[in-house]
Specification:
about 210 residues; mainly alpha; Tetracycline Repressor, domain 2
C-alpha cells in the first residue's frame, strides 16, 4: 500500500472515531489531524472539506456491513436458514461495531442529508436486493406465505435489530434491566428470529 493511501486510511480511522463520538458538527478537524498524525492541510487536500470527510466515513462504515451481508447472503442455504443467519449476523455486527451504530444515529439527526450524497445507499442496496431474492425464493418455493410484504419485512428486520442497539441504554434504565451483555443480546436475537419466522413461514419447523 502506498504511503499516501496509508495516510488516508489513518485519517479516515481517526475521523470515524471523532464523528462517531461527537457527530459532524461536534468533531474538530484539529483533533482528527492530531489523532491521525496528519496535518489539516493534508486532510483538506485528500477530502476537500470536513463535510466530504464525513461522507467518506459514512461510506466506510456502510461498506463494512454491506460487504459482510453480501458474503453471507451469497452462501448456498435454504431460505429459512438464510433469514436466521441474517438476523444473527445483524445482531453480531452491531454488537461488535458500535461505531457503525453511532454514525447511523448521528446521520438520522442530520435527516440523511449526507448519506444521500454518498455511495453508501448503493453499496447497502446490493445486500438488500440479495435479501429480496431470498424472500422471493421462499415464496416461490412455498416456504413463506404468499401475502408477505417483502419491502415491509426488510424494514422490520432492520428496525428490530438496529433499535435494540440504538435504545439499549435508555430502555435498560426504563426496564431496570441490563441489555448490553452478550447473553441478553442472544436472548433478544432469538426472540426476534422467532417473531419473524412465525410471521413468514407457512408451517414452522419442528
Amino acid at each position: 500500500m502506498k504511503r499516501s493511501e496509508i495516510t488516508k486510511q489513518k485519517i479516515l480511522a481517526a475521523a470515524e472515531k471523532a464523528f462517531a463520538e461527537k457527530g459532524l458538527y461536534g468533531a474538530r478537524v484539529d483533533d482528527i489531524a492530531e489523532q491521525s498524525g496528519a496535518n489539516k492541510r493534508m486532510i483538506y487536500a485528500y477530502f476537500g472539506s470536513k463535510e466530504k470527510l464525513y461522507v467518506a466515513v459514512l461510506e466506510r462504515v456502510y461498506s463494512r456491513i454491506a460487504e459482510s451481508e453480501k458474503e453471507l447472503l451469497n452462501k448456498e442455504t435454504d431460505c429459512t436458514e438464510a433469514i436466521r443467519r441474517i438476523i444473527r449476523h445483524s445482531f453480531d455486527f452491531l454488537y461488535e461495531d458500535p461505531s457503525f451504530v453511532k454514525m447511523v444515529m448521528w446521520e438520522n439527526l442530520n435527516q440523511g442529508q449526507f448519506l444521500k450524497e454518498s455511495e453508501a445507499p448503493r453499496a447497502k442496496g446490493i445486500s438488500v436486493e440479495l435479501l429480496r431474492k431470498v424472500l422471493r425464493q421462499g415464496k416461490e418455493q412455498g416456504i413463506f406465505r404468499e401475502n408477505v410484504d417483502i419491502e415491509e419485512l426488510i424494514v422490520s428486520i432492520n428496525m428490530f435489530c438496529f433499535s435494540y442497539f440504538s435504545n439499549i441504554y435508555t430502555m435498560g434504565q426504563i426496564m431496570q434491566t441490563e441489555f448490553s451483555g452478550r447473553a441478553e443480546l442472544d436472548k433478544r436475537c432469538e426472540h426476534i428470529t422467532d417473531i419473524i419466522l412465525e410471521y413468514i413461514v407457512k408451517e414452522r419447523e419442528q
